[in-house]
Write the structure tokens for this entry.
Amino acid sequence: MRGFVVLPKRWIVERFAAHLMRPRRLARDYERRTASAEAMVHWSMTLLMTRRLARSHPQRA
């Protein structure tokens, strides 16, 4: 094949990784314990979910 070919479902994984890397602390391996790294992942996903919940949605009839 030549040129750009979209791989199915790959964008979902890349988008998820981008959401995790938004807080700069997760961009590098700064954490000594896995528990603190896991807490940072939970914090990042909590921010994402609260932003999605806070978005205004049009009222459904």
The longest helix spans residues 34-54. The helical segments are 10-21, 34-54. The CA atoms of residues 51 and 57 lie 12 Å apart. The mean pLDDT is 77.
